[in-house]
Amino acid sequence: xxxxxxxxxxxxxxxxxxxxxxxxxxTSQLYQDIVNIGNYLTNPNFxxxxxxxxxxGKSTLLNAILGTRTLPIDLIPTTGAAITVKYGSDVxxxxxxxxxxxxxxxxxxxxxxxxxxxxxxxxxxxxxxxxVFCPHTFLETGVEFIDLPGTNDRDEQDNLVREQLxxxxxxxxxxxxxxxxxxxxxxxxxxWLLDRNIKTVIFVANFINLLDxxxxxxxxxxxxxxxxxxxAELPPGFSNLYRVDALPALRAxxxxxxxxxxxxxxxxxxxxLQNVVSILQQNRGDVRLPRVxxxxxxxxxxxxxxxxxxxxxxxxxxxxxxxxxxxxQKAKNLINQGFNQSLSExxxxxxxxxxxxxxxxxxxxxxxENNFKSWQTNNLKKDLNDLQLAVMKWLYQAYDFFKEERPExxxxxFPPEPQITLPPKSDSNELLSEPGAVAVGGGIGWLLGGPVxxxxxxxxxxxxxKNIQKLEEKSSNESYHQQVARIxxxxxxxxxxxxxxxALAILSEFEHQAExxxxxxxxQEPADITKKREEIRxxxxxxxxxxxxxxxxxxxxxxxxYIEIPKVSQHQPQQKSSxxxxxxxxxxxxxxxxxxxxxxxxxPPKQQVYSSPPPKTTPxxxxxxxxEKFRKWELDEEIAQIKAQMRSPGYQNxxxxxxxxxxxxxxxxxxSEAEKxxxxxAYKILGLPQDAAFADVKQTYKxxxxxxxxxxxxxxxxxxxxxxxxxxxxxxAYTVLSEKK
Length: 741
Known about the structure:
Blueprint: H1 9-22, H2 29-42, E1 46-51, H3 58-66, E2 83-87, E3 92-97, E4 102-106, H4 111-114, E5 127-134, H5 137-140, E6 143-147, H6 155-165, E7 170-176, H7 183-193, E8 201-206, H8 213-229, E9 241-243, H9 246-255, H10 258-263, H11 266-282, H12 285-350, H13 352-368, H14 372-402, H15 451-466, H16 480-514, H17 527-552, H18 623-646, H19 649-664, H20 673-686, H21 694-708, H22 717-740
Parallel strand pairs: 1-6, 1-7, 2-5, 7-8, 8-9
Antiparallel strand pairs: 2-6, 3-4, 3-5
Helix pairs in contact: 1-2, 1-12, 1-17, 2-12, 3-9, 12-14, 12-17, 12-18, 13-14, 13-15, 13-16, 15-16, 20-22, 21-22
């Protein structure tokens, strides 16, 4: 037995896979065509189908070519199955039944039982295939004939013929010269051959010998017209029309009468047939692949009708979900930015060098004055609380947005109050005579009493300013006041060192916990939706695989491959931690229910109004600090706007349409002349034309704030007063134009 042709195996697999995806009924025409085209492409033999209405002499013509009465012939339509004639060393028959039973017999007598119509002219239902093996030299070249049932008899027979024609490399259509091209034959030529890209067709006219000479001339002219009107795709130099008197040809072959066989037209036809086949065999792809184009086009169209409506449905849903994910991702980035900045500021404040620089002197004095608790509450704790609140603000923003995990308050405890042990007192007359004994404060009575306490406070300042508190060895002439001051300084240093160490450790753990708050995940979508997505993915992959194989086989197609589009935004949430990376997110979260739908109005940063010049010891912020203040305000404003968008029903329903509408809308006209004047004055204060965009308003306001912020003039009372007035005007103008927007 010849081996299967594997050149088109991948193409056949793609066609079958597409058939399975479509869920075609096995009885449907498309399913049968796919099966037949698959068998056809993988069949190594060159298939020649003899085709025509019943009683046109198809089996007789094949018997004449084979030179024997191999196939059943009679005066009534007999062939009830597609009989495939292949090469074999001897004549034998193989019948395959639908239950996979094989009937194998020598000779062809068994055809009378399985391959002819019954008494009711019906085909047998249990026969799957009929094969006859014959030792003929033409068959030995890899050719096989298919003797088809006659058409125009029963629908069941017509369906079988139509299927078999699709898997033939060459079709021999037998015509009856006595009634050329009936209406049924013309319809079959169009529907079964032309419309399915079957164009390697040879017409053979039978029964011309039964006509008188004048009728034969007329028939010959009509036959030429039929042949010329059909654009056969045969090798150059070969006609697509031949005359063979089938029965005389068979008789001549059986008798061995070469002259009679030649006069019947059989020899000329056989010679042309063998030459055409030898040429077409060299590149059977040119014959077979156009048949695939017709089937593939039907499959692709059916797949698209199944895929596209669901794809469009998912696209609408996913676009809305992606918009929500992107806005949440933007909020997450902004919150992370603000949180990290605030955390960095707190961590910097907790560094021991910064604490010592800012608090050691005042803390040592408070300790010496027995006022440590009050100093800790009003100074150290107050500053810590401000920085803690700045950090917590971002976590509450995150929880408000994402509802992932409720934030825990950042709690930084203080170490126990320092305890000191005083050195033994020396002669009290010497206590006021040493360096640093300057009365800079009172209340030292608990320690030494009276002005001596003030001398200790002065010594604290003296020692810190001289930077000698860290000397390993005491000066030999160090006074009692300085000894006490050193003890206070050391105690505060130890206190702040312990506070810094403990607080930074707490902060590191807190930062890790905060990752769970500033986070959002894409909720798992329902199982039925996931199943539907998987179905669409399989359909698209099947479509694309078929398209790939068609392109590889150089079969034309008008379709483009499907491109997989992520169902959620590509801006995925960052990973939380190594143990949480196992989560797989397949769908954006559903919108949160909230009663708040009104956009929160964002005010410009409030500027401090001084009733009197600040103390000269207050340092003026540099431009970088002022830039940082404004940046924080911008973050707050942007997050507030994002939050308003997230909670706006209009945004949730159709963000793109809302944005488009907003872009197309003109600014609302002022309701009164007073409003017009107010807006014109606001533009004038900011130095902008009245048609300036709000982005220009915001940028100009930012520039003016940086230039005229009152904190820049803390040591220049007159300039500061002028700056305060300007800032008041800038704020009013910005508020007016913000409302106009």
